[in-house]
Amino acid sequence: MVAVAKTKSRTKLAEQAHFRTLRLPSPFQPRLEALAAQQDWYDWAGYKAPHALWDDELEYFAIRSQAALFDISPMVKYRIEGPDAEAFLNRVTLRNVTKLKPGRVHYTAWCDDEGYVLDDGTLFRFSADRFRLCCQERHLPWLLDSAIGYEVSVVEETQEVAGLALQGPTSFAVLRDAGFKGVEKLKIFDLAEFPHEKGSVTISRTGFTGDLGYELFVPVKQALSLWDRLIEGGKLHGIRPMGYTALNRARIEAGLIVANADFVTGDSAIRTDRLRMPDEIGLGFMIDPAKGHFNGRRAILDARQNKTLKHVLVGLEIEGNIPAEHAIVYHRGKREVGLVSAAIWSPTAKRNIAIASLQRPYGDTVVDDLWVEIYAMRELQYHKLMKRAKVVPRPFIKLDRRTANPPGER
Amino acid sequence: MTSFDAIVVGGGHNGIVAATLLAKAGRRVALLEARPELGGPARTEEFAPGFRVSVAHILNRLHPEVVKALDLEANGLVLDASDMPSVALSADGEPLILTGAYGEGLSGASASEAQAWSELRAQLIRYAGILKPMLARRPPDLSGMTFGETSALGMIGLSLRRLGKEDMRDFLRMFLMNVADVSDDCLTDDRLKGLLAFDAVMGSHLGPRSPTSLLGLYYRLAGEIGGKAGAQITPSGGMGAVITAMASAARKAGVQVRTDALVARINVQDARVTGVALGSGEELTAPIVLAATNPFAALMELTGPRNFDTGFVRKVTNIRMKGSVAKLHLALDGLPGFKGVAEQDLRGRLVFAPSTNHVERAFNPSKYGGFSPEPVMEIVLPSISDTSLAPAGGCVLSANIMFAPYALKEGWEKGKPKFLKAVMAQLERVAPGIGKQVRHAELLTPPDIEQRYRMPGGHWHHGELQADQMLMSRPVAGWSGYDTPVDGLYLGGAGSHPGGGISGVPGLNAARRVLARKG
Ligand SMILES: Cc1cc2nc3c(=O)[nH]c(=O)nc-3n(C[C@H](O)[C@H](O)[C@H](O)COP(=O)(O)OP(=O)(O)OC[C@H]3O[C@@H](n4cnc5c(N)ncnc54)[C@H](O)[C@@H]3O)c2cc1C
Questions:
Q1: Contact yes or no for B446/B460 (Cβ under 8 A)
Q2: C-beta B11 within 6 A of ligand 1
Q3: How far is residue A345's CA from residue B131's CA, in Å, rounded to a whole number?
Q4: What is the pLDDT of residues A153-190, one digit of tens each?
Q5: Most distant CA pair in chain A, distance
Q6: If you measure from the C-alpha of residue A16 to the centroid of ligand 1, how many angstroms do you get, rounded to a whole number?
Q7: Do the chains contact at A146 and B485, CB–CB below 8 Å?
Q8: B199 lines ligand 1 (CB under 6 A)
Q9: Helix axes B147-162, B111-134, angle to 10 degrees
Q10: Is the CB of B493 under 6 A from ligand 1?
């Protein structure tokens, strides 16, 4: 009796191992831990992820002049399959999925009934009726409720699928030397399957850096062998694993936005004035009113017609070299008109750049005389700087190698 | 002709009202009913050779504006307000009789109880009167109210003020109370308290002690017949006579009435309604489709979730609409005798709900998918006032029985004979010998009602009428104004504000909404 009770309580304890590891380990954890000289970890959707492994500057320059390897396993992934998968995704997401051919990827977003963005992400189309949706936040209840009336299955596969981003000018050479035959055929936003061990890896020519780059997905069992294969293939091409700080710099240069950094997602916003429509965060290009019904269509088209859009997301170039992170934006130095959500001194553009959310008409029709107020902490004292800001197009950098065919080798 | 200005789906009473109003405003209207006859559960039909009955058996809330707008009296409806008493049957003793409109008089009670009742009754009717305009008009549209809506809301505020401070405080205090606590506060007679408990929860999945159950009684008392709040009648010709009069008004107004016309699909193109497709494959077009069927059926089955946003689909699929009322029809050899009930009172409404606790106990098992061995019921003998409903010498008994859970755990196929036995045993207690008079019995469970009348869940109100599914939240929050996210598609059945019962108000309001929208 006693013995049984003891085993029972032990099994119960074992079942609750997640209390001991508050953050899930990535499938690549053994490799990351071995390299993580900084031990600077953060929480990415419940996973333990590195800000930097050794040095974020070197890691950034690996993106721009070598090849950087970034673990994207924590990205939330959904497997969406079935005869109605296309119709389902066309209803849920903004862009026209009928235009997405098998073997292609597109960047998209999705909204609630009021037209507020719930998240953005990438949609991979493997075949006529098989997709993968990748994003920041979890949306299973929403996706399942959206599936009412469709013959489609939606399964979260975040924990089953490991992902790596390989980014930088030598990334193609790394893949080639790692033995992925035919990878040179991938054009930007193409995807294909390649043999790996007894199974296969999905490689797409995609990324979050604005550079030449690829993303690779494998079942978690093959995660470590894939990592090792890439490191081996990249030996002579300067491959370097990296953390988020470096990636974040690259993505700002590429003018890409991050959910819950540059806008608050619909489900997580507590304050109603934080919600954003696609047109308010630079995603208006995704909207295809002619494609038939999609979530938020009515609200989005109404807002366009009634001109009730309140915000606009812009790229800013700011004088000087002090990053304006989270600075308030002013018109004529007096009227508060918005906030900078991300800013860096761009080593590649050699400009002081920022992504900001402004209240229309500022940033939309009124773009002159904008200023940002930067508080620079210098030895326990703020230096308050009023710097001129200019609205500039995104991306802040445009690298031909990102789209060049065949892909360059360095 | 296959092209119309408006198509009304569903020839229940609300559909007929809506179609008639639209036609009177000059629209070319088609009214499509799946069944061979109009009226839904209000139609009168034969259930045994020579015996006829309607599922909805008592008229207590047909709105005066509907009577007027359709000129129902000129179309043959006789609303004779000759008093129909409510008889609160008791298991062992004498019944209590509420005469006049909802107990203006009370016989069989002590003098002090009669006094207490007359005070409570006045209070309840006063408070129901405050809700009355709210239960008649389109619910206020919280974003962008028109001047008319704002002033209507203002009037309600004003009528509250007119109550006086103490009365207003009481109104607000009692608003979300349960009926059991209210009647315990004021009354002592179990028969009377049982009757109030029964009336408050009739048609809902609530027990008398469930919070907010008093709202059901207010809803009931907000109804009127012949200008008298709380009054009730069994129209001569049965409830079917109401439908006949409405249908006559519809035809006179030029409505093209088509029965045996099952709508299989509501067509939508570019977020705009374009018409309907019939089960036969025939297509009819119209820029306006008003569905006076259950909202879930109209939106999710006929229109389809693909035409709506996910959040909206979520709301609609979450409307609670599992019915709790079963219907018993008995073809009897002769007039049954009810213990202690004088023959002239047999034309009344006989309620067997001998105490609050009895009603609560009848409710309890239904929460878990069972039924009580002692169900409570409301009995009417409609063939007394309308002899055409039964062959000479025969008698029709029509009873609403609670609580019959939609999803009975053991399944209705097995459970139905057991439930019928329990019901008959209860009847035998109050009408000894009635079992021997039965020539034919028909028991309709909620799934039977669902099937026969195309009412999902077999629900009285096409969706629970509880605080969270009323007013601005009916049928779903944000869409209480009869329109839907699909342009040109409107809802106008009992599932819309204010709710069910033969009132005609949802249909009336929906038609008015259509007319207000398109000049
Ligand atoms: C057991 C029971 C007893 C009741 N007793 C009473 C009572 O005594 N007094 C009272 O006032 N109320 C009573 N009610 C409530 C009342 O019957 C309803 O609230 C009322 O019928 C609702 O009217 P309606 O016109 O909105 O819908 P319904 O009366 O349900 O009419 C809808 C109509 O639409 C038709 N339809 C549905 N789908 C389609 C389709 N796809 N194509 C074409 N046609 C379609 C149906 O056949 C039906 O005729 C009772 C209800 C029940 C269940």
A1: no
A2: yes
A3: 64
A4: 999 999 999 999 999 999 999 999 999 999 999 999 99
A5: 80
A6: 52
A7: no
A8: no
A9: 160
A10: yes
Chain A residues inside the 8 Å CB shell of B308: 293
Q: Which amino acid is at B114?
A: A
Evaluate whether B394 touches B435 at the Cβ level (below 8 Å). Answer: no
**pTM over the 0.90 mark:** yes
A151 and A295 together in one domain: no
Name the residue of B378, B502, B505 to mutate for ligand 1: max ligand atoms within 8 A of Cβ: B502
| Topology, domain B2-42+240-320+462-518 | FAD/NAD(P)-binding domain (3.50.50)
Ligand 1 binding pocket includes B217 (Cβ within 6 Å): no
**Residue A47 structural domain:** 2-75+160-253
pLDDT category at B236 given cuts 50, 70, 90 is confident
Beta bridge partners of A44: A47
B263 touches ligand 1 (CB under 6 Å):
yes
What are the tens digits of pLDDT across the range A309-351? 999 999 999 999 999 999 999 999 899 999 999 999 999 999 9
A91 touches chain B (CB under 8 A): yes
Domain boundary among A113, A136, A156: A156
E strand spans, A213-286: 213-219, 239-241
Spacing, Cα A295 to ligand 1 middle (Å): 32
Pairing of strands A311-318, A328-331: unpaired
C-alpha to C-alpha distance for B339 and B349, rounded to whole angstroms: 14
- Chain B residues with CB within 8 Å of chain A CB: 270-271, 300, 304-314, 317, 485
Q: What CA–CA distance (Å, rounded) separates B129 from B218?
A: 8
Segment A41-51, tens digit of pLDDT: 999 999 999 99
Distance CA B46, CA B36 (A): 14
Both tokens of A16, joined, read 């609750």
ipTM: 0.92
Is A142 at the interface with chain B, CB within 8 A?
yes
CATH 3.50.50.60 domain locations along chain B: 2-42+240-320+462-518
Task: List Cα–Cα distances, A163 to A211, A354, B21, B219, in angstroms.
Answer: 18, 29, 62, 59
Closest-CA residue of A relative to B311 is A113
Alpha carbon distance B148, B145 (integer Å):
8
d(CA B454, CA B450): 5
Q: Are strands B6-9 and B288-291 parallel, antiparallel or unpaired?
A: parallel
Same structural domain, A145 and A180: no
Distance between Cα B41 and ligand 1 center (Å): 5
Tokens of A68: 């950087």
Give the phi and the psi of residue B50 in degrees, each rounded to 5.
85, -10
Residue B305: its chain A contacts at CB < 8 A?
148-150
The span from the CA of A244 to the CA of A74, in Å, is 12
Are residue A176 and residue A44 in the same domain, yes or no?
yes
Q: Answer yes or no: do A304 and A374 share one domain.
A: yes
Determine the length of chain B.
Answer: 519
Mutate to test the interface with B, among A94, A112, A148 (most CBs of B within 10 A): A148
Nearest CA in chain A to B487: A298
A15 annotated among ligand-binding-site residues: no
Compute the residue count for chain A.
Answer: 410
The beta strands (E) that lie in B153-287 are given as 224-225, 228-229, 256-258, 263-269, 272-278, 283-285
- Cβ–ligand 1 contact at B57 (below 6 Å): yes
Continuous segment of H or E residues that includes residue B13: helix B13-24
- Among the candidates A127, A156, A185, a domain finishes at A156
Q: What is the pLDDT of residues B424-471, one digit of tens each?
A: 999 999 999 999 999 999 999 999 999 999 999 999 999 999 999 999
A110 with A51, same domain? no
Closest CA–CA distance from residue A116 to any residue of chain B (Å): 12
Would you state the structure tokens that stand for residue A363, as one six-digit string? Answer: 């940033």
